[in-house]
Amino acid sequence: LTSTTANLFNESYRTSRLLSAPQTGSIYLSTVSLMQPLDYEANRFYQVSVYVTERVTGGRNTSTDIVTGHTTSVRGTPYLVSVTENSPIGSLLMTVLARDGDRGVPNPVQYLLDNSSALASLFSLNRTTGRLEVASSIDRESAQIAAVYASFSLNVIAEEVSTGSPQPANLSRTTTSVRITVQDVNDVTPTFSRSAYNATVLENTVAGTPVSLLAACTVTDHDDGDNSAFDLTIVLSNGSAFDVFDVLPSSAVGTAALTVRVKDSTVLDYEATKSIEFQIVARESKTTARLSSTATFTVFLLDANDNAPRFNQSKYEFSVPENSPNGTIVGKVDAFDIDSGDFAKISYSLGGTDANKFIVNGTTGQIQVGVRADEDLSLLDREKFPILYLTLQATDGGGLTGSSQLEIHLLDKNDQRPAFQRTFYEGAAVDSDLFPNNVITYSLLPSNSSASFAIDNATGVLSVQRPLDYEALANKTLVLKAEAADGGSPSLSSTVEIRIAVVDQNDLAPECSQRVYSGSVPETAGYGTRVAELAGSDGDSPGSPNSQVFFRILAGAGDRFTLDAGGSGVIVERGADLDVNKLGVFHNLTIGIFDRGTPQLTGAPCFVHINVSDVNNKAPYFEPVTTRVTVSEGSATFAPLFQPSKTAIDPDSSANLTYSLLTNITTGRSAGGGAVASTPAYNFSTLFSIDPLNATLYAMTALDRETAQELTVQVLARDLNAATPTPVQTATGTIVLTLTDINNKPPRFLSTGSANNYTVQVSESLAPPIPINLKLQADDPDVSTVSLAYAIAPPGISQFAVDSASGQVSLVQRLDYEKISRHEFIVTVSDGLHVTSASVTIEVINANTYDPVFDQFPTPLSYPESTPVGTVVATVHAYDNDSGVFGQVVYSLLAGDAFFNVASDSGRVTLVRQLDRDVSGGDQQLLMVINVKDVNDCSPTFPSGLFTFRNLKENYQAGFEIDSVRATDKDVGRNSELRYELIAAPGQSADALQLFRVSTTNATDGYYAQLRVNQSLTGRRGWYNLTLVAKDSGSPQLTGSTVLSFFVAKADDFTLVDDEALARFRSALIGTNVILIAGCGIALTCLILMYCKYRRLSRQAEITIAAGESGVQQLHLMKRLEQQKQAGEAETADSAADNGKPSKHNAESRSSNIDAASAPPDDMSRQSLATRAPLVPPSRQEPLHHSKLKADDNLKSSESSDKKRKKKGRRSHKVDPGLDDSRSEPLNNPKSDWQLPPLSRHHRQLGRLPELLEPDADHQGDIRS
């Protein structure tokens, strides 16, 4: 710190701090303090310098000055104040306050207003108090204030006043400014520059065009802001809106220059109105007062030439004689124009083709003839132009025109002679004059030929007076002269020459030169071959059409003969068939002769006799083309097989036929209709020979029906005497030989493979007797074989048996995998003469057939409570006679596991918790019960080894439901979860895999295999075998299988029930309410019961039938059904016990007929079927009687079945034979105690009912199926 008076001030460092981001560095604070009192009078000003130096470097520094002193100061500066214009005089704006800088004994302060500004006169400043007040009226819109935009500054001076006298020279003063803003008051009205304005506009001005104001029009509002905003509108003097003009702008602020435009030009019509007066109102738009002013505008319309002249008439008609002299007055026209001044002055003129023949006065409109038509008659010739059409035109001073039509009619004078229009006579003359000048009279002038003709004097028609003879006339042309005179005065006339040509008449008929013509051609003659030449003549005038003749064939041509292009030569027609064998040798033609005259004449006909000679050109042919012969396959060689009753036929008389065999195209077919190829061992080309003369067929080698049952031989016949090389005269006939069978072939097993062996797998768990999944099938090439017989060789095989008729192999003794895991034997098939054998290998599938047995089980042991944890207290051991995983034993504790543990593999029982005999419950006793855990040791099993489906129809399409089959698995959990698939049956064709498919359905009672048709069965009739495999989900995976046998039959020509419709009914049956007409319930009920039984839907199914009094009262099942129920209860219970589950439906074990059309849908076969249907609409229901149709009571018997199963232990599986079709009684069986009343025709179409139902008023109960 430096100063001239360093002893007066002191500087001391106080503190420092870091700067905050984003700034960097530090800030240092220092204080400058006063050390001694100051004397204002001694010194009013001090300057002190402060230096700052960096401590580290000591080199860089900076400095600043502190200025201090004592003066008079004005407080609160600068001043900003506003004042409203027109404020009253004396209104206070503000008070200025100043004080002396001396704090000890300050001097008084006085206030002065700087008068250098002209605006200072508007205000006054009190010298003592500093009050600034309004001194005169303030007008914001005045020029002075407006020039500074109503904001200006005044300088106020505050100066120290000494109490002494005189005033010292060093008194201080200070100056401040007061900024004054004058606030606007809405005291100015929007004002037009003038109170009235004149303007002009043409009457034809278009909308949007500004009018011409004679003086500029402005509107000004000197107020400020919203006070100066105003709108501009056009009104009439009465204040109503006026839309002829509009003003721009429509609103403004402060000042606006106005433009008036035409808005509706249709009102501007000088002829109707010469001037238009209106007012423009300028009214404030944003103030409350809405001050306004008005200016009057007068718009003077200027005339425009907007009206064309118009004639008084749209058309003028005048008449004047033809040939009138020059200057003849024709008439006068008049036009007018509603415009003014020169625009209303009209001049007339003429236009048109003949306008040069007339003149019109341009001012008066008078029309005169302008040519000398009396000297030149062609100028105004009425005969050429009876009416002259001209155009009148009126033109005003502005160039607009109007027009009118002018017609001048020429009056007739007799100035025309009658005139013939041509030099030759046409029978009429023309006179262009008018009546009576144009009346014409005709006459003939005397001549050599005039006596033969006459003329009508009025019409001029010329006629013949006497007949003319063409042949007698030396000159065939006659000359006459005719005259035509008019009726004028004087009469005028003219003549014309008439030349008459006499024409010949066709009166002679033509004649043939000779009556009969002859000709000959070969039958092979081609088109155009000439047969005969014709000639004729006509006696009429030579060279004329009357003497020209031509010919036509009237009869006998038959598309074989025609005339040549000249018309006189007979030739062979195109494509003619002259075959003498079909048409004969002789042909007779009738020829007509005609002339070309009019009318046409014909003469007597002539005749042409034609002789056609035969040619050897016909190919031989066989009739019939194909001959079928049946011969034995044992026919002797080189012996005649077939001698035709007649050989090939050749129409030609000179034919010489020879026969041969086309051995290279001999074909064969098997018994099934399939084509058989020729082989070196059985060569078709060497089987036969033929006699070339009589076509007798011989066998050259032994015939084999089994190789080819049908042989087709082609025989060629050739004509050796053919006259032409082409076409080749040959013929081909066919001999079809069908060979009858002799038993010379042994039967053969089907699909056994090259090893001639069947290999199948059979589970040892099957309980005999039961069919296995092997059905032998064989065929015999010999059709004479009636049946085949199957057998097992040697007969001593005890475990298996075969059905001699069907070939089904069955298990008759239980298998034991642990003893024998593979069985082999021989099967044979015999046709009665020959025997064929095949080997069979049965691979036994291991099953869990033995229970574990304990062979080491210690008696109860006692241990002290101090026995250490981990002590082996016992060791148990069990064995299982099964093989593989089925023989593995797993140990576990059922109780006592809180203190003991058993090793699952070794059977060692270990103490796992300290024993304490002294506490409650401490006396621990271990009952050694070993729980053997389940392993996947049971294969899925089917209730039958064979399921047969016999009633499939070939018209069934893809997706058709066949039936459902269920397998069971005695395991639990995932080991019992099944899925199904189809594979080809061992030794059987795999074609069935394309025809059928299977899907797995999980139901509450097990897993079902749903069988369906995979593709159309059309044309696929016959037997098909597949193996249905059931696979479980255990590890290792086990399988079971059964054989499915399908028979596809021919579609019935007529069936009572459409299978597809029945399937749709079945799908719709679930949950459907059926409303029946009273009386129809019995029929539907019978159908539903029959359907449910034969489709095996009665499982868990309930049907409620409600019948009104007018319908069926009760329903009762036939006696046989009740008997079946009683007889089958025990068997049903046993079957349920064997399965361990309630019996579901009989189809699971059926191996008899299963109707393919009856297959239930997946959901129907395992869900409740409930149909509750009122027989009458709800609005008309009567009291109802209910009869419930319930499912089997198998569910009720399931508990007892379970108890029996537990008591009996493991039992062999029984097969429920179900209800076979053969056990059903026919409708109205005489042996039955129950009869139905006679059925109507419609009821009879229901077919055979499996159960008979009839009303029974005394019984109401459950009907079970």
UniProtKB/TrEMBL annotation:
Biased composition (Basic residues): 1203-1213
SUPFAM superfamilies attached to this UniProt entry: Cadherin-like
Subcellular localization, as worded in the UniProt entry: Cell membrane
Residue ranges constituting the Cadherin domain according to the UniProt record: 75-192, 193-311, 312-420, 429-512, 513-622, 623-749, 754-854, 855-942, 952-1065
Annotated keywords: Calcium, Cell adhesion, Cell membrane, Disulfide bond, EGF-like domain, Membrane, Repeat, Signal, Transmembrane, Transmembrane helix
GO-annotated biological processes: cell migration; homophilic cell adhesion via plasma membrane adhesion molecules
Biased segments, Basic and acidic residues type: 1182-1202, 1214-1224, 1256-1265
Membrane topology field: Single-pass type I membrane protein
Classification via Pfam families: Cadherin
Main subcellular localisation: membrane
Region (Disordered): 1122-1265
GO molecular function: beta-catenin binding; cadherin binding; calcium ion binding
GO CC aspect terms: catenin complex
Protein name per its UniProtKB record: Cadherin domain-containing protein
PANTHER family for this protein: CADHERIN 23, CADHERIN-23
Source organism of this protein record: Macrostomum lignano
InterPro entries: Cadherin, Cadherin-like_dom, Cadherin-like_sf, Cadherin_CS
Membrane-crossing segments per the record: 1074-1092
